[in-house]
Amino acid sequence: MANLANIAMLAELDGAILVDKPVGISAHDVMKAVKSTFNLVKVGHGGTLDATATGLFILLLGDATRFSNDLMCADRSYSVTLALGRETDTGDRAGNTVAEKNCADVTRERLDAALKELRGDIYQSPPEFSAVKIPGRTGYEIVRTAEGDELREKLVHVYRYEVAEFAPPKLSFSMKVAKGVSVRSLARDLGRELGCGAYLEDCRLTASGIHSVEDAVPFMKLMEMHPADFATRLIPKNRILAH
């Protein structure tokens, strides 16, 4: 339990904490837990993550919350695994199946051609449904998160893909994308390009702007830290956006 001196110290913190978010907990719940545990007054973030995803989550404390929009505009890097042969309504493994097809005829050449179509400036629409983690439950609830005008295609940018493993029905690759790209939508669209369907099985955010998950603290380890140790993980305001 933090004493009064520690509480006062933490309340005055301005900067960023890099967290390695585990699967099965929402970014909002990470933010809420850290704020409560360390008695923080003002907490924001530099971009959210799905509950089914893992990796870098940037917490912003105090006056550093003003950098939220800048961080959300940063380029992002992901490491992902897709399962071929099935499309889900959420675009990830937690969703309901909407289509299935044999993927035995998918070759590396066809994959490279499909990825080329989904590189550079592309139009993309968000998934109509998302898997939401319900507090106190082990599973996810599928809820509608986009409808009407929200489902309109928008122009986004994908810089590159690097295939790590091609072993249908599994496919793993890393990628770098600009602001606004939905990884779940990319999985869905790649499956459609290949003609067999696909969904996102695993997704890990490895970098956002200048920040890397290699410098992040695992969420559970962070929650066990003494307040003084927590404070040592702070990235000062003048380094949050530094290049």
Provide a descriptive summary of the structure in words.
By secondary structure, the protein is an alpha+beta fold. The chain has 2 domains: 4-73 and 211-240, Alpha-Beta Plaits (2-Layer Sandwich); 76-207, Pseudouridine synthase. It is built from 8 helices and 15 strands. The strands form 3 sheets. Strands 1, 2, 3, 4, 7, 10, 11, 12, 13, 14 and 15 form an 11-stranded mixed β-sheet that branches. A two-stranded antiparallel sheet has the order 5-6. Strands 8-9 form a two-stranded antiparallel ribbon. A hairpin with a 6-residue loop joins strand 8 (129-133) and strand 9 (140-144). 35% of the residues are buried.
Task: Write a short abstract of this structure.
With 243 residues, the chain is an alpha+beta fold. It contains eight helices and 15 strands.
Could you name the CATH class of the largest domain? Alpha Beta
What is the H/E order? Answer: HEHEEHEEEHEEEEEHEEEHHEH
CATH superfamily of the largest domain: Pseudouridine synthase
Distance between the termini: 37 Å
Which descriptor suits the 3D outline?
A: globular
The CATH architecture of the largest domain can be given as: 2-Layer Sandwich
If you compute it from the alpha carbons, what radius of gyration comes out, rounded to the nearest whole angstrom?
19 Å
Proportion of residues in extended strands: 35-45%
Total beta strands? 15
Task: Name the descriptors.
Alpha-Beta Plaits; about 240 residues; two-stranded antiparallel sheet; 11-stranded mixed beta sheet; Pseudouridine synthase; alpha+beta; about 25% helix; 2 domains
